[in-house]
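Tutorial, part two.
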Amino acid sequence: MPLYPNITPYHDFHLSVGDGHQIHVQEYGNPNGLPVVICHGGPGVGLHADNCRFFDPTRYRIILYSQRGCGLSTPHHLIANETADLIKDLDYLRAYLGITKWLLSGASWGATVCLLYAIKHTEHVFGLILCGTFLAAHADLEWLYSSQGAGAQFYPELYAKFSHDLPDAMSILAFYEQQLASENQISASRFAKLWCQWEAVLSQGKQSLQWTLSCPQHGLNMARLMVHYFINHCFIDDNHIAQHGDCLSHLPIWFIHGRQDLVCRFSVAQRLASSLNSQLLILDGVGHGVDNQVYLAAARRAADLMYIKLTRNKCKD
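Running the prediction step on this input gives:
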């Protein structure tokens, strides 16, 4: 199933959200269509225009934005940049655009943001489409960065280079936080490269040949944001989503997850989907990278089916 064709945004702007931050926003598709907002991963990746191609542009009003401190949002600061700020920004964007309720879609950390927003602002949510869901529990950080985590078990030689023989996930995060904050930009960039290459190994099963993308400064900023969030346990209580997710059980939710995902644990996503009586599409033989063709087809299928469900429900109302 191919993605929808490339389109250009009909609205591209920056929105001041307070604390000196401005977020970059783009709108695609049908201005009168069903609104869907896409929350990007990372933290710190920034919006990617191809993400709008899961959604039929004749039916959906597609909203992409970059979270605080990344992408084309400004400034690239860690100050006043916590999870509660991201949720506040997202609801401010909804109100600014004159939207009462919208569909939320996100992958990895983007799925985390979607779930946290939906828990806090359920009344403004039609439903959710979530790929490679990250629940941001302490155990999820151990899975990513400890010697007993999936990546360390699959790629022990690369993990040794990444971890610098530090004993646990929090020690590794503290080490990278210190190195990435160095005023020596060459040294900071070197450690950002190690960080981003480990992320690429977990996501894609191989080291990225590019450093990172086409701009080292982008990689440094992304690494700083990720460490900032993860060393602070994403600024939420442990198991917050699992403990508060029951308020979403009335919403239509699609979970899409690769069984071989080394970034986001399949077992916890499966349990959450089961507890919410949600749709769960399991992709056997697929990892975390949503650039996989099976993943892309599944995400488009979920978007098409969600539109049908939501418009049918609207007709019933």
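The beta strands are 11-18, 21-29, 34-39, 60-65, 102-107, 125-131, 253-258, 279-283. In part three we will examine how such features are distributed along the chain.
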